[in-house]
Amino acid sequence: MSKLPVTEADLQAWVDAALPGARRAEVDDYLNLQPEEAGRVRDYLAQKQALRILFNPVLDEPLPENLSTLATPPAIAAVASPRTPLPGRWSLQRIAAGFVIALVSGLAGWVAHDQYPATERLAKASPPSLPRQAAVAHAVFSPDVRRPVEVSAEHEDQLVAWLSKRLGTPVRPPKLGAQGFELIGGRLLPGNAGPVAQFMYQDGTGQRLTLYVSTENTANRDTAFRFAQEGQVNVFYWIDGKFGYALSAGIDKSKLALVATAVYDQIEHK
């Protein structure tokens, strides 16, 4: 009997380790004969791992107050069936954290594949913070081997013109050669209410960092230079007029601070 053709659903199930053994073996054989498809699947695995590293700490965050209220005996008694085992506080916390991970991971997948309009509506209803958005974008795209950017640094002029037009204001990537990072290129991403830009850099060891540029900050007057840690991604971010900037990388905080200072100085004196 001839083998069934390998579909996109099979490849996604392979990434999620959801295929039965016999079918997984068939997909393995297919990937061995299709190096481009194998590379794409490895990219998906890298993105999945990056998102897991980024959002696993959410499981250890305190239970939100409204769910904590549900975990108290009176509230549980009011909503639970007498015959249904009652989840403990730990279980509710895992459920809440799982919802947060599913929501933001879904947003990241929509950013990467532009296929989830329902997630877009949820994101607009409860927009993530600037450092969280930047960290998600970094986690999704920086591990990508085959296409980490939409427009490469070889076409920097076209990249700058395209992003400036889409954002409705001039944007240009800083020069970070003195800090050991060279521009790879950039891409356009969806923000909460409009487009944002992402510039990606790489050093001699292959370590990547990304600069996330948003123009959705007209109501934000907090211009302080701040640090955030989203999982294993460190982020320095600040507001300059209507611009929001966030520099993200999985490197040491002190090293990233030096790069962020260089970016800040160049933007301030542009």
Distance between the termini: 67 Å
CATH class label of the largest domain? Alpha Beta
Q: What structural class do you assign from the helix and strand content?
A: alpha+beta
In DSSP terms (H or I, runs of 4 or more residues), the helix count works out at 10
Helix content: 40-55%
The largest β sheet comes out as: 7 strands, antiparallel
Determine Rg (CA atoms, Å): 21 Å
Order of strands across the main sheet: 1-2-3-4-7-6-5
Helix/strand order: HHHHHHHHEHEEEEEEH
Q: How many separate domains?
A: 2
What is the CATH third-level topology name of the largest domain? Phosphorylase Kinase, domain 1
Q: Per the principal axes of the C-alpha atoms, what is the gross shape?
A: globular
CATH superfamily of the largest domain: MucB/RseB, C-terminal domain
How is this fold's topology laid out?
Layout: H1 8-15, H2 21-33, H3 35-55, H4 65-70, H5 73-79, H6 89-113, H7 117-125, H8 130-141, E1 151-152, H9 156-167, E2 182-190, E3 195-202, E4 208-214, E5 226-230, E6 233-240, E7 243-249, H10 253-268
Antiparallel strand pairs: 1-2, 2-3, 3-4, 4-7, 5-6, 6-7
Helix pairs in contact: 1-3, 3-8, 6-7, 6-8
